[in-house]
Amino acid sequence: MDKNYETICGITLNRIFGYEPAAARRLLSHFGSPGAVFSQSPESLDAAFGPFSKYRALICRQELDASAAEWGPLEASGCRFASIGSPDYPPLLADCPDAPVGLYIRSSTPPRELWKDMRAVSIVGTRDISPYGKDWTERIVKMLSTARHKPMIVSGFAIGVDITAHLAALAFGLPTVAVIPVGIDSIYPWRHRYVAQQMAETPGCAIVTDFPPGTPPVAFNFLRRNRIIAGMSQATILAESKAKGGGTMTARLAAGYGRDLYCLPGRIDDIRSAGCNRLIAEKLAEPISDLDSLPAQMGLGSGRRGSSKSLETRLQECYGSSGDENLSTILKVATVIREQRGITPEEICRTAGLDFGKVSAAVCLLESDGFICTDFLRRCSIDNKKV
Predict the structure, then answer these.
(1) In this predicted structure, what is the pLDDT of residue 234?
(2) How far apart are alpha carbons 320 and 59 in whole angstroms?
(3) Strand segments (E) across 173-283
(4) Average pLDDT for consecutive 10-residue bins of the chain (387 residues)?
(5) What is residue 234's three-state secondary structure?
(6) Distance of CA 141 to CAs 178, 239, 289, 339, Å?
């Protein structure tokens, strides 16, 4: 049967049964393939659906024509569609009972090569990421990048933990996949569109969704999206999340699929760590307490600490010619930031006993040279992607 016809049929079934994929899977199990479903006689379809099905009337030529018109521009732009049961579909996801009928994929790598021998680890969490969460998310990805078996980092492309994990993966040379809650013809959030373009053009990376083109970012779609993140990964890491946050829901889905689950412990009184701490207390997740042993614990082979120079050595090499006084100030400011992530310039002044002018100049210099990063509140943290 024509491959493009199978694709069109798969797209149509995915659109029709998007919110009830189990029903579509029963149909595919009965007839064998998307194309076979649409090739049946009316009598055969009537018998398969029964007399009261709301879907029976949608198995028709008009729906196929609508899918073909929708797919044409997407295919021309390089988008691919993978139906469940095909080599282009993530094999781990196919094992989940609520896996989608198909996935739209935007990548410079052919889909079957994306999933071939790939060990996927999802890293999820809150949008309201703290300096602690950002720092440790980057550290975790950095350590995973040293494993013998390099994992694919999967996340949901949201602000906070998700985009931090994606950017860290790109910085440390790991493939990364974003599962978005909108159609493949769009990006959400729009502020991350340039990261999406970089991922789509980077070998081994991809943008993925099961939503048809034109789907808006409504609340329920985020929950539906989360099952794909959990389902396509062998292990899930929850970095920070409220007790009932989306990240915690994704983690519980992963546990329900029988996948390995790890959580970054946090302060008992920090609402952003409540989900992590609860999952650890419920014995559903392993706490991340030793970063060095994490890759081996996840079955990725032993990780290794890089032999890169210390922060102090790099600062001395970069600013050694600026004079002893300036170098001393820079070293003191950088040390305070490393020890107290999320500290502001005003707080650095009090902690280090320096005047604001010197601290402000040192912070600007360290940030411009990639040693630290700051947020819109001017909270400073060491940039793990560059240090």
Answers:
(1) 96
(2) 72
(3) 176-179, 206-209, 235-240, 260-263
(4) 85 94 92 94 91 90 95 95 95 95 97 91 96 95 95 97 97 97 96 96 97 93 94 97 95 96 96 97 96 93 69 89 84 94 95 94 93 90 82
(5) coil
(6) 15, 11, 15, 20
Name the amino acid, one letter, at 243. Answer: A
Cα dihedral across residues 28, 31, 32, 34: positive or negative: negative
Residue type, position 118, single letter? M
* Maximal CA-CA distance, the chain: 88
pLDDT at residue 306 in the model? 54
DSSP secondary structure code for residue 81 in this structure: E
Instruction: Give the length of the chain.
Output: 387
Q: Give start and end residues of each alpha helix (H) in 270-310.
A: 274-281, 294-297
What is the Cα 4 distance to its own chain's centre? 30
DSSP tag of 322: G
Q: How many CB atoms lie within 10 A of CB 373?
A: 19
∠ CA 246-382-386, nearest 5°, is: 95
This prediction's pTM:
0.90
Q: Comparing C-alpha atoms, which of 318, 316, 374 is closest to residue 345?
A: 374
User: What are the residues whose beta carbons fall under 8 Å from the beta carbon of 61, sequence distance 6 or more?
Assistant: none
Q: Kindly state the tokens that stand for 267.
A: 């302060």
**Structure tokens of 162?**
């998700």
Complete domains list, the chain, with CATH: 1-73 (no CATH), 112-297 (3.40.50.450), 311-382 (1.10.10.10)
Nearest alpha-carbon partner for 90 in 167, 152, 10 = 152
Inter-residue contact 246 to 254 (CB < 8 Å): no
* pLDDT at residue 3, as a whole number: 73
Please report the pLDDT score of residue 305 as a whole number: 60
